[in-house]
Write a structure and sequence with these properties.
By secondary structure, this protein is α+β, with helices and mostly antiparallel strands. The chain has 2 domains: 222 residues, ApbE-like domains (T-fold); 87 residues, ApbE-like superfamily (T-fold). A hairpin with an 8-residue loop joins β10 and β11. α1 packs antiparallel against α6 and α4 runs antiparallel to α5. The protein is globular and about 60 Å long. The chain starts with 30 loop residues before the first strand and ends with a strand. The protein binds adenosine-5'-diphosphate and magnesium ion. Adenosine-5'-diphosphate binds next to α7.
């Protein structure tokens, strides 16, 4: 499987990607933990506030969320909802209910471009699986007919969720990592950590502030924006932020090459194919990682015009759009955060 690695400047040692356990809980050393969870490489770097307890608490929580939300494991809450599609409502944890409600809100907000019931189509293409395929048109039509967030019935009081029609399937792959990153940040907050980076396969939380050379936690985090057409770690530019989540959806995150053509993993709920527009990637900067995650997928799927209109209707949400012709557009609030790095290939557009 194609793994996503951290894109954080100054953390290149991360690219070894191995699981590290803090051997002696040394403080005052830069320490990073990396583990495979939620279908991706997850890393947490607390720098000189590294604490084995905090790392363990975070990864326990990530596995707990995986065990509720994954569709690649039997018997998770979301898997049980899928197994009972068209049969009966299923009792699930309250946090699953809440995430489903959020997913449904984003489906409505994006006019269904983001849809948590996209599962049958994701399964059909199998992008990122061992066996990706270009499906027959008939199979695509059948999968499309099963996608409709309005047929996800959530009963908050009863604590149940239900997919109305058999063979419908939830897939929270476009929102769950963002939710998990927010939950990880809550653990940092409770532990009183002054700053750190959480990176769940590219869902980044730049938590609070970076430590400055004078020892004060007042600095900005510098997060590299991956060049969608080049090797990992090749940056178009840098986002400088404090206490924000940064999430990118693009053609390079996960893809399969079939008969010499690349097929990426964000699928159009309109035509059943990988979304094909003039965008290479969309990066969302928001306070909550769940919002940034859902919106990055939604905006990428909607395309630039509609996607930008959507972001601009929301408070404290900014975006960076990278186009196939190497243009870059920024929302108003993103202008002060972004520094172009690869000016030889990319150019900032101001319209
Ligand atoms: P990543 O997983 O690389 O962070 P995204 O957040 O954009 O990327 O999520 C993509 C995943 O979301 C896909 O792998 C799939 O599981 C699911 N997905 C694909 N298309 C859609 C869609 N139109 N709406 C909602 N989820 C989608
Ligand atoms: Mg997403």
């Amino acid at each position: 499987m194609f793994l996503h690695y951290a894109m954080i400047l100054g953390m290149f040692f991360l690219l070894t990607g191995c699981t590290q356990k803090n051997p002696d809980s040394r403080m005052n050393t830069s320490q990073v933990y990396a583990e495979f969870a939620l279908g991706t490489v997850c890393t947490v770097n607390l720098y000189d506030h590294s604490s084995e307890k905090v790392y363990n608490d975070i990864f326990s929580r990530l596995f707990e969320i995986e065990n509720l939300m994954s569709i690649n494991k039997a018997d998770t809450d979301v898997d049980r909802i899928n197994q009972n599609a068209g049969i009966k409502p299923v009792q699930v944890h309250q946090e699953v209910i809440e995430l489903l409600e959020k997913a449904r809100d984003y489906a409505e907000l994006s006019g269904g471009a983001f849809d948590p019931t996209v599962g049958p189509l994701v399964r059909l293409w199998g992008i990122g699986s061992a066996d990706p395929q270009i499906p027959e048109q008939e199979a695509i039509q059948e999968a499309l007919s099963l996608i409709n967030w309005r047929d996800l019935v959530i009963d908050k009081e009863a604590g149940t969720a239900f997919l109305r029609r058999s063979n419908m399937m939830l897939d929270l792959g476009a929102i769950a990592k963002g939710y998990a990153a927010d939950e990880a940040a809550k653990i940092l907050s409770k532990a009183g950590v002054p700053g750190g980076i959480i990176d769940l396969g590219g869902n980044i939380v730049a938590y609070k502030n970076k430590k400055e050379s004078n020892g004060e936690y007042t600095g900005f985090w510098r997060i590299g924006l991956q060049n969608p057409l080049e090797d990992r770690g090749t940056y178009i530019g840098i986002l400088e932020v404090q206490h924000k989540s940064i999430v990118t959806s693009g053609i390079y995150e996960r893809y399969a090459e079939i008969n010499g053509t690349r097929y990426h993993h964000i699928l159009s709920t309109a035509n059943g194919y990988p979304v094909d527009n003039d965008l290479l990637s969309v990066t969302i900067i928001a306070d909550a990682s769940m919002d940034a995650d859902a919106l990055s997928t939604a905006v990428f799927a909607l395309g630039y015009e509609k996607g930008r209109t959507l972001i601009e209707s929301l408070d404290r949400v900014e975006g960076v759009f990278v186009f196939a012709d190497k243009g870059i557009r920024l929302t108003q609030g993103a202008k002060s955060m972004f520094r172009l790095h690869d000016a030889a290939s990319y150019c900032l557009l101001t319209d």
